[in-house]
Design a protein that fits this description.
The structure is a single chain. With 408 residues, the chain is of the alpha+beta class. It folds into three domains: 77 residues, Integrase, DNA-binding domain (Double Stranded RNA Binding Domain), CATH 3.30.160; 108 residues, DNA polymerase, domain 1 (Orthogonal Bundle); 184 residues, Intergrase catalytic core (hpI Integrase, Chain A). It is built from 17 helices and seven strands. The strands form two sheets. A four-stranded antiparallel β-sheet has the order 1-2-3-4. Strands 5-6-7 form a three-stranded antiparallel β-sheet. The longest helix has 20 residues.
Length: 408
C-alpha cells in the first residue's frame, strides 16, 4: 500500500528504526539514530541491490518516487542504476579536474615516499615550465597525444634528459587519473608502442650538456668569487666548486654530516643520485671555508650548512645561480663546474680516470667490476681534491703549477 505524506511525516517524527515500503521497490528507512532516508530496492543480474536516493529532509515523497522511477527504468534496460550513478559522478569530477589539479594531487600523495624534498620540487618545476602552459587547464580525461607532443617536441632534441623526465611524469599523472576513473583509453604519454612511433629515440637526439666554464678560466673566476661576493650563497658556490659535488648535495648538507677532525664530509645515500653514501675529502681550502661559514654566525653542529630565509629550510636552488649572474656568468650553470673539474683532471693531471669518476660519485664499470672494487679510493681522492683546491685558488697570472705529477 502506497504511503501518504502524512504517514511519511509521522514515521520521520516518531523516528522508530525500520523500513516501510511505498510502491515498486521504494522504501522509507529510519536508521538507529533516527535519520530517515529514501531507498530503492531492485534486482539486476539475479542479485538484489539497495540504492540510496537521499534524505527525507531533502527529498519529498513525490521526488523520491521520481528518482525511483528513473532507477527502475535503467534496471529494466539491464543497466545497474548504482553503477550508472557512479559513472556519472566520475564523469562530472573528470570534467572539472584539470591536468594541473591531477598533477598537484599526484605530487602531494607521493611526496612522502620520495627520498628528498628536491625530487618533489623538480616535479613541480618541470611540469610548471614545460606542461601547464600547454594543457594544464585541460580536463585530465581529455589530454591527447597531440597535447603531449606539443609539450615534448620543443625540448626533445635540445634537452633529451629533461624531455624524458617530463614525458615520464605526464605518463604517471595520467596513469593515476585512469586508476581513479578520471580518464580512459590508452595513455597518450606512453612510450612503448605509442610515442616511440612518433618521436626519435633518445640515442638519436643530441645529448644535453650543462653550460660549463673552461677550466683555464676558473682560477680568475674563483678569485672574483672569493673577493667580490661575500655571502652564504657565494660560500655555497665555493664549496660546490671545491668538492665537485652536485647542487642539491651542497644545499641540503647538514653539519651532522661533517667530521672536521677527520676532514671528511659523508653524504648519506638517500641524498645521492646513485643512492649510495659518498665520502668527500675536505681540502685545506674547504676546511677554511667551513671555518668562515662558522664565523659568519651560521653555527656548527646542527641544521643546514646553508640555511635559507625560512626557518628549517635550506638556501634556494637558485641562490648559486644568482651569484653566477651577478658575476656576469649568467650563461653558465652551477652543475657545469663538475664538467670543469673533470676536464681539468683529464687535461692537467695524471690521476687515473677511475679516481676522477669516483670523486664525482659516478658509477664506474660494470656489476662484476663493482663487486671486486669495494673501496672508494679515499686517499687518492684526497690528494686529487687537494690539487684541485690549489689550482682553483691560484691567481690567473700564475696558474701553471705542477700538480698531480705522479700517478695516484
Amino acid at each position: 500500500m502506497a504511503l501518504t505524506t502524512k504517514q511519511v511525516d509521522k514515521l520521520v517524527r516518531d523516528a522508530q528504526p525500520g523500513a516501510t515500503a511505498d510502491t515498486d521497490g521504494l522504501y522509507l528507512k529510519v536508521g538507529p539514530t533516527g535519520a530517515a532516508s529514501w531507498q530503492f530496492r531492485y534486482q539486476i543480474g539475479g542479485k538484489r541491490r539497495m540504492m540510496g536516493l537521499g534524505a527525507c529532509s531533502v527529498l519529498t515523497l513525490a521526488e523520491a518516487r521520481d528518482k525511483a522511477a528513473e532507477a527502475r527504468k535503467l534496471a529494466k534496460q539491464g543497466i545497474d542504476p548504482l553503477e550508472a550513478r557512479k559513472a556519472a559522478e566520475v564523469a562530472e569530477k573528470a570534467a572539472v579536474t584539470t591536468f594541473k589539479t591531477a598533477a598537484l594531487d599526484y605530487i602531494e600523495s607521493h611526496r612522502a615516499g620520495w627520498r628528498n624534498a628536491k625530487h618533489g620540487q623538480q616535479w613541480e618545476n618541470t611540469l610548471a615550465q614545460y606542461v601547464y602552459q600547454k594543457f594544464g587547464d585541460k580536463p585530465v580525461g581529455e589530454v591527447s597525444t597531440e597535447d603531449v607532443l606539443g609539450a615534448l617536441k620543443p625540448i626533445w632534441s635540445g634537452k633529451p634528459e629533461t624531455a624524458n623526465r617530463v614525458r615520464n611524469r605526464i605518463e604517471l599523472v595520467l596513469d593515476a587519473a585512469r586508476a581513479k576513473g578520471l580518464a580512459t583509453g590508452i595513455n597518450p604519454a606512453a612510450w612503448r608502442g605509442h610515442l616511440d612511433k612518433l618521436l626519435p629515440k633518445r640515442s638519436k637526439a643530441s645529448r644535453e650538456h650543462h653550460a660549463a666554464m673552461d677550466y683555464r678560466d676558473l682560477p680568475a673566476f674563483y678569485k672574483r668569487l672569493t673577493t667580490e661576493r661575500v655571502s652564504l650563497s657565494a660560500a655555497a658556490l665555493q664549496l660546490t666548486i671545491l668538492t665537485a659535488c652536485r647542487t642539491s648535495e651542497v644545499l641540503l648538507a647538514e653539519w651532522s654530516e661533517f667530521d672536521l677532525d677527520s676532514r671528511l664530509w659523508t653524504i648519506p645515500g638517500e641524498r645521492m643520485k646513485a643512492a649510495v653514501a659518498h665520502r668527500v675529502p675536505l681540502s685545506d681550502a674547504a676546511m677554511d671555508l667551513l671555518d668562515t661559514i662558522i664565523r659568519m654566525g651560521k653555527g656548527e653542529g646542527e641544521g643546514y650548512l646553508f640555511p635559507g630565509a625560512k626557518a628549517g629550510k635550506p638556501l634556494s636552488n637558485m641562490a648559486m645561480t644568482m651569484v653566477l649572474r651577478k658575476l656576469g656568468h649568467g650563461d653558465l650553470t652551477v652543475h657545469g663546474f663538475r664538467s670543469t673539474f673533470r676536464d681539468w683532471c683529464a687535461e692537467e693531471t695524471h690521476y687515473p680516470n677511475i679516481v676522477a669518476e669516483q670523486a664525482l660519485a659516478h658509477t664506474v664499470g660494470n656489476a662484476v667490476e663493482a663487486a671486486y672494487r669495494r673501496g672508494d679510493l679515499l686517499d687518492k681522492r684526497r690528494a686529487l681534491m687537494a690539487d684541485w683546491a690549489t689550482y682553483c685558488s691560484t691567481t690567473a697570472a700564475s696558474n701553471v703549477i705542477p700538480i698531480g705529477t705522479k700517478a695516484a
